[in-house]
Amino acid sequence: MAGSSAEVMWDVPGSFAWGVFHERHPRLIHQLGTDLPLTAEQRHALGELLDETLTGTVRPLPADAPDAGRWAAWGAGRYGRPWGETSFLWAESYFYRRLLGALGYFDQGTWHGLDPFGPAKAAELHGGAVDAELAGLDDLPESAPGSAGGRALGDALLTASLWGNRADLGFRITAGRGSGPDGPLLADGREAIWKHLAARPGRVCLVADNAGPELLPDLVLVDHLLHTGLAEAVVLHVKPHPYYVSDATPADTYACLRRLRSASGAAAEVGERLWREVESGCLVVRAHPFSCAPLGYADMPDDLRRDFAAATLTVMKGDLNYRRLVGDRHWPATRPFADAVAHFPGPVAALRTLKSDVAVGLDAATEARLDADEPGWRTSGRHALIQARL
Ligand SMILES: O=P(O)(O)OC[C@H]1O[C@](O)(CO)[C@@H](O)[C@@H]1O
Q: Is any ligand 1 atom within 6 A of the Cβ of residue 92?
């Protein structure tokens, strides 16, 4: 099946992916020079990386890099070849790994482990928009699980988590802050998800995406699942190191928990409960190396496959996870979601705002309407979907 549609490549002038490399990455590197006191050596290394991606061949990691072996396998056949021949998924992922390398993130020294996107993430997490979001939790009704009110509350939390995905910093480097009001969902699997969870409360895996304004509503959703008994335990999968600008790491996760706990009202109660769930082991934070791999979930390693296979439900957040889940290919948008995720070892749901070319599981009328009315619908971030194979 994978061979029947072409992979998304980035070196196609005028394509969305081309813009990521030619417009977004230069701006991102400029922004780093504003946010951090970079040395001449670091600036030079970042400049070289940009040039390499746009005009050069792919250089491997230094042999002594801690993840050199992993990347040798993940990139086999690509090193020494032009960057332009690599797929969008692979190239963008490797770009972020090399960016960290250019800053000395993996070396001994003062930049070791220092999140270069930390200043931008912190500004968001402690900004007024987050204050307002957290205060809004005071207005949510208390409702019994299983009641109509409980379902409405669940829907509201699921939807908040979904639209939180629009808040990714990488996207906003070129798209600007606003992308219009939340629109109707292109696919709405909410009812099926609630029925599924109510019938089989167990361990839920939530594969998180961005920190701050996305992770906070994710955590509120996690609290809802645990608090109402729809989940007995939750495993929150985050990235082992900074990635795609605002992707959540363990440090970002604990910063969000502290932010919730130090808020007031309902947000503080959620924070307190989640804090205890972490202490008791009902909420586990996991940072698997494959979370930063340049590959689709069809190629995940056995330990991760076992983790997802044993879960009642795996929730994949965000655009990149969606691309990795369904395959980063030019699929017909009407390809059934269940076909695209047939490789996945357990029940799986995707919560995603559309920020790249890939889409599956839409009906033909929806696709025709979007194509006619709104040529940029796949990448504008104005549309969202909730799809599930249970
Ligand atoms: O944070 P998200 O939802 O995964 O979005 C990141 C997306 O941003 C991009 O870098 C460009 O929009 C995509 O390649 C990627 O899928």
A: yes
Contact between residue 184 and residue 117 where contact means Cβ atoms under 8 Å apart: no
Q: Are 161 and 217 in contact (CB under 8 A)?
A: yes
- Looking at residue 177, its pLDDT comes to 45
| pLDDT tens-digit readout, 306-320 | 999 999 999 999 999
Nearest ligand 1 atom, CA 165? 3
Question: Which ranges in the chain belong to alpha helices (H)?
Answer: 16-19, 25-35, 40-55, 68-74, 88-103, 118-125, 128-136, 148-164, 169-175, 190-199, 215-227, 250-261, 265-280, 302-309, 318-326, 337-340, 364-373
pLDDT for the residue numbered 142: 72
Q: How many CB atoms lie within 10 A of CB 33?
A: 12
Give a yes or no: residue 110 inside a domain: no
Instruction: Quote the ligand 1 centre to 168 CA distance (angstroms).
Output: 8
As for how many domains the chain has, the answer is 2
If asked whether residues 87 and 150 sit together in one domain, one would say no
Whether 164 lines ligand 1, by a CB cut-off of 6 Å, is no
Task: Give domain status of residue 108, yes or no.
Answer: no
366 & 262 share domain: yes
pTM of the model: 0.95
Instruction: Please state the ipTM of this predicted complex.
Output: 0.95
**pLDDT per residue over 206-221, tens digit each?**
999 999 999 999 999 9
CA of 320 to the centre of ligand 1 (A): 5
Pairing state of beta strands 283-286 and 231-237?
Answer: parallel
